[in-house]
Write a structure and sequence with these properties.
By secondary structure, the protein is of the alpha/beta class. The chain has 2 domains: 135 residues, Aspartate Aminotransferase, domain 1 (Alpha-Beta Complex), CATH 3.90.1150.10; 262 residues, Type I PLP-dependent aspartate aminotransferase-like (Major domain) (Aspartate Aminotransferase, domain 2, 3-Layer(aba) Sandwich), CATH 3.40.640. The chain is 41% helix and 16% strand. A 7-stranded mixed sheet has the order 2-8-7-6-5-3-4, sandwiched between helices. Strands 11-12-15-14 form a 4-stranded antiparallel sheet, covered by helices on one side. The chain has a two-stranded parallel sheet with strand order 1-13. A hairpin with a 2-residue loop joins strand 9 and strand 10. The structure holds pyridoxal-5'-phosphate (PLP). Pyridoxal-5'-phosphate (PLP) binds next to helix 5.
């Protein structure tokens, strides 16, 4: 069984700061292995990739390419299906620009859900504006779980894309993306799965899910900031559905002027979508992060976070806090990831988070970039979010529950 106390030793920030860090859905901390890999790159073989014959450049190029392979291995993809971008948000925008502009037209429909992060709504909204397409929003039930009947009612032959999150970054609800992919494909639609909150925390197999696009961010999975991933399935690539609209040096094989005309030959994927000098250090750091996650085991990490979530709900019950705490989404620990959003009575979420901070606990407050979901579930002022990762301990959950109890006692036991 995963032992977070041993894992914590690899995270310098956790040793140096007396903090209970429960904002992992926003960004994770980095282990020393990742920090060292980046340091080593800059200290010993920094060079631009794909452009030099000297050994420094060769080594940097090899590791940059190797990183595509390692990331592909994590999600059971082929390395040619992996495009490095800045983050999940850029990945979705790249899918919108390179696929959406080519394949979505007036009258077409794009399905999103109420539980999406704004990053999986706004790019599609922009595309719909540009193309004269229509966005349809699939509802959730009162617990924040996807309303499948509503999805089945709204999807049609007009639907060109279903854009859906794998795990809600507010409620931790896990969508059955394999089943939803089946429904999308039955209607001739493509599907993009926002895996920003799943790939870092559980085994994800793109072949099993069958999705056409998958995106995630390095910084939420022990890697550096500034590196993210867009997976584009071989089927989409082979079907010639991608236009390399973002292009330039590095994303081209030949540029020639012959007979007064410009002739351009593009390289194969993923290089045609990675123009310019990429985030080489980021890719190397991400590769190290993936190796770390694989060594610990994604199933172990998932089980650990589920244990912590269950423990939180048990403690809240034991301490009789149920009457003061309002959970956003399912009121039980089952079938959800290690993300718990809540409010305390009528308290403003920011005020609650500030009080928790004064007790050494780092949580997030506000809408967590998911305002529609908060409004749908009756939390118009947002919520406080605690999110767990592999280095969090049961003791930290005790600290959180104790801190909530202190706030409740001060405020309501007069
Ligand atoms: C579900 C989900 N999608 C997308 C994003 C955007 O990630 P990034 O800010 O790394 O682009 C986040 C970040 O919180 C997220 O939780």
């Amino acid at each position: 069984m995963l032992n977070p106390r041993i894992i914590r030793r690899d995270f310098p920030i956790l040793a140096e700061n007396n903090i209970v860090y429960l904002d992992n859905a926003a960004t994770s901390q980095r282990p020393i292995q990742v920090i060292r890999a980046i340091e080593e790159f800059y200290k010993t073989y920094n060079a631009n990739i794909h452009r030099g014959l000297y050994w420094l450049s060769q080594k940097a190029s090899e590791l940059y390419e190797e990183s595509h392979r390692v990331v592909a291995g994590l999600i059971n993809a082929d390395w040619r299906e992996i495009v490095f971008v800045k983050n999940a948000t850029e990945a979705i925008n790249l899918a919108m620009i390179s696929w959406g502009l080519k394949n979505v037209g007036p009258g077409d429909e794009i399905l999103v859900t109420v539980m999406e992060h704004h990053s999986n709504i706004l790019p599609w909204y922009t595309l719909a504006e540009i193309r004269g397409a229509r966005i349809r929003v699939v509802d959730v039930d009162d617990e924040g779980r996807l309303d499948k009947a509503d999805l089945e009612q709204k999807i049609s032959r007009r639907t060109k894309l279903v854009a859906i999150t794998h795990v809600s970054n507010v409620t931790g609800v896990v969508n059955d993306v394999e089943e939803i992919t089946g429904i999308a494909h039955d209607h001739g639609a493509r599907i993009l799965v926002d895996a920003a909150q799943s790939v870092p925390h559980m085994p994800v197999d793109v072949k099993k899910i069958g999705a056409d696009f998958i995106c995630f961010s390095g910084h939420k999975m022990l890697g550096p900031t500034g590196i993210g991933v867009l997976y584009i399935s071989e089927d989409v690539i082979e079907n010639n559905e991608i236009d390399p609209v973002i292009s330039g040096g590095g994303a081209v094989k030949q540029v020639r002027i012959s007979g007064g005309r410009l002739r351009v030959e593009r390289p194969r994927h993923p290089w045609s979508l990675e123009p310019g000098t990429p985030n080489i250090a980021g890719a190397i750091g991400l590769m190290e992060a993936v190796k770390y996650l694989e060594k610990v085991g994604l199933r172990e990490i998932m089980d650990h976070e589920r244990r912590l979530t269950k423990y939180f709900f048990e403690k809240i019950g034991e301490e009789d806090l149920d009457q003061y705490i309002r959970i956003v989404g399912p009121k039980n620990p089952w079938g959800r990831a290690g993300i718990i959003s809540f409010t305390l009575g009528e308290m403003d979420p920011h005020a609650t988070a500030a009080l928790l901070d004064s007790m050494g606990i780092a949580v997030r407050s506000g809408y967590h970039c998911a305002q529609p979901l908060h409004e749908r579930l009756g939390f118009p002022r947002g919520s406080v979010r605690a999110s767990f990762y592999l280095y969090n301990t049961a003791w930290e959950i005790d600290m959180l529950v104790q801190a909530i109890k202190n706030i409740v006692q001060k405020r309501w036991s007069r």
